[in-house]
Here is the input.
Amino acid sequence: MLKINNLKAKIDNKLILNGLNLNIKSGEIHAIMGPNGSGKSTLANVLSGKKGYKISGSVLYEDKDLFKLDIEERAQKGLFLAFQYPLEIPGVNTSNFLKTSLNAIRKSNGKKQLDALEFLKVVKSKAAALKIDEKILNRQLNVGFSGGEKKKNEILQMSLHEPKMAILDETDSGLDIDALKIVADGVNTLRDKKRSFLIITHYQRLLDYIKPDFVHVLMKGKIAKTGCSELANELEKVGYENI
Amino acid sequence: MIDNLKSTFENFNKNITTKNTISKIRQDNFDKFLSSGFPNKKLEDWKFSDFKKIISQNFKNLKINLKDKKKFSFDNHIKEFTHNKIFFLNGFYNKHSFKYEDDKKIIFSNLKNGPAYEPKGNNSLNLLNNAFFTDGLLLYVKKGYKCKKPLVVYNIFEGNNKNNFFNQKLIVNIEENSELNVLVYTINLNSNPIFFNTSNFFLLEKNSLLKLFYLNELSKKDLNYNFTETKILENANFENFILSYSSSFFKNEINCDLKEKYSSGFINGAIFAKKNQHHEIKTKVNHFGETTKSYQKIKSIVDKNSKTIFQGKIYVDQKAQKTNGYQLSKAILLDKESEFDSKPELEIYADDVKCSHGSTSGNLDENSIFYLMSRGLNEKQAKNILIKGFLSDAVETITNMEIRDYFLKKIEKNVNEYK
Here is the structure.
């Protein structure tokens, strides 16, 4: 699904990713953990196409050069990034935006666009399944949302888009246990053989609910260690310094 | 320009009325106008808009053809909501329909045969309006009557080389305990440029409510100066919204006097200026009564060598204790050639007062664009969503839901069609 080979990324002449290698196959869940400033969010941003980075190395997404795709093309081809800090967009109704975004993706994949009624039916059932209060749909996009509501909104969008490859950038940060379960449910419901996840997190807590196939430790822009889900528990005990 | 205008006036004043008293007052206004001429940037109120320059760049002559009575049809009525209507064609009253109202409660006439208005103040465009107005609306909403549907004043123009200068007055009195919603909708069906100069007055008596909306569908070379004066008495509430996206030059100047206690004034607006447009909103809110409140929120999008201006002043008289006055103007500039000027002012002589003003300008947020694009939207769609969202935030202040939705639709269309 995603093959990252010797990926380097610089911003303002500062090297953030320094030769990162990672191979994610269909159906796998990978977790990336690492201290602050190790490059976790940069990795998520670079993969989803954020501008401003100087990049070398290669990333193949479904065997094609990811860097040849624009931001929206990546999304349309099934790459989804759940933001660490979802943006507040004043004046934009959440439900309308979710519909526009879902239809943009459906259109690019040759699927029929949903009308307002069809969309509402879909989004309400997804929200109910994730126990997300549908009231957020009538509010302005992320405006005045609590940290938890913003993250839930990301998970709702992920479940609407049904991506092939989802990247969760510290979606668990700052969440209470109930919200954490919603995030985990969002991932676990979508989990199947054709879908992969890259979960970026600081804490092992989320990984109690989502069992990853692999856990990687990112240090100074490189994968320093890879293990199975037990590695997360070990990290929790000994900290990053002793890895 | 001025010499031509003199002969235009001479001719006009001979033909518009046979009454000497009215001619005399019009002449006085014109003479007073001549002593100062078109406003230029040396005047504080016009420091960001050199109207003298703007008008001379756009017009060789200002002409009024009173014989131009050619009938033209207009059937593009607003279909989104039911409303009462008054039509003005090329500046003259044409027809009306108040079918949703009790016609004993709405009294109106046009201003074609007078009265005349004595020269007052130094606003030269108001003096020009007093000299040249051809018609207008005098409307009373009688005591205790709440209009059921909004009134749309359609100003329809078919400007041409010989008829490009139009002056109008709307004079409206909302009596005690009565209510009215008005949308002034100005449309030029021709591409020949016009200069539309309006001077409006609204009196809101005790416990009354007026919601006043301005919308223009003028063409890209038209100029519109729209002056509004309001006097608001005890516990009356004035709500104004300006949607400003068409015409080359559009300046709205609103003076709002909160004369008596518990009165309030809301002046909000959304401006989308592009391709050399020059749009300005200038407000002056005077708190004269105790426990009065005012809110202003103006949002502008500025692109392609265009310019928007917000000049807003809140004045609090020493008697106006417990005043609440808020003002916020925000602008987003889409390119380097565009300009946004803001001059917020507070002048406060009372001590128990809450007042604030804020003004910001910036670019579209790159991170927000990235966020929206990461959800499958292309750059243009993402930017359009942000532009619409930014402007909608001001439109959301409108409390008449039908007109709010109509304005949101107009913004949607205008932004989507913009290239």
